[in-house]
Amino acid sequence: DLELSDLLTGVAFASGGSGYDPLTSIPATATSSTGQLDLFLEYKEKLITLVGEEEATRVISEGIYFTAMGANDIANNYFSIPLRRHQYDLPSYVNFLISSAVNFTMVSRR
Ligand SMILES: *[C@@H]1O[C@H](CO)[C@@H](O)[C@H](O)[C@H]1NC(C)=O
Question: Is 100 in the pocket of ligand 1 (CB under 6 A)?
Answer without folding.
Answer: yes
